[in-house]
Structures are given as C-alpha cells and as structure tokens.
Amino acid sequence: MDIILREHAIRWSCDNENEVTTHFDFVMFYLKTWKLACQNKIGDKDKLYYATYKFLCDVEMVAYDYIKSLLIDVESLRFSPSLSVAAIVSASIEIYLMILSKQNS
User: Fold this and answer.
1) Would you kindly state where each structural domain of the chain is located, as residue ranges?
2) Residue 59 to residue 2: CA distance in whole angstroms
3) Is 28 exposed, middle or buried (CB count within 10 Å of its CB: 0-12, 13-18, 19+)?
4) Structure pTM?
5) What is the sign, positive or negative, of the torsion defined by CA atoms of 91, 94, 98, 103?
6) Any idea what DSSP says for residue 22?
C-alpha cells in the first residue's frame, strides 16, 4: 500500500503534466533516495556508507538494464510501474549479491 501511496505522491507532485510516471521515474525515486541518504552520511567519513553508496550505484545500473528489458514486454505494462520497479530493484540486489559472492569465492 505504501508503494501505491508513493506513486500517487509522485504523480501529484508532477501535477500530472503531459506525461505519466514511467518506470525510470520510480528507479530514480527509490535508488536516488537511498543514495542521497548515504551521501549525507559520507561526510562523516564512514567507509560503510561509501561502500553502500557504491553498491547502490551498481544496483541502479543493473535495474536500469532490467527496466529496459521489461518495457519491451507489452504484457508487463499492465502492472503498476511502482510495483514492477520495486520487484526489479529487489531482484537486482539479489542478483548483484550472488555475482559478488561468486567473485569472492
């Protein structure tokens, strides 16, 4: 329900101008918000936040690639963009962590 409320807030803040909110807008919203929170903490010179920021940058690239693939499939467009992006971000994090774990072993 929170995701749908966020989607409504984004559409309302854009004043529903000429375009509808796209999948890319939600990737920007979710990941940029997390990255901004990390950037605010990086000023404290904490390496954990810097590593988290770099991780989110990599996840963002993976999510963008998956979103491009998703937009090709017409059937997937019947779902809410915010829910689709939340699922893709979640899957991107899982896949990226699997790749990292294989590289470290």
Assistant:
1) 22-104
2) 22
3) middle
4) 0.63
5) positive
6) P
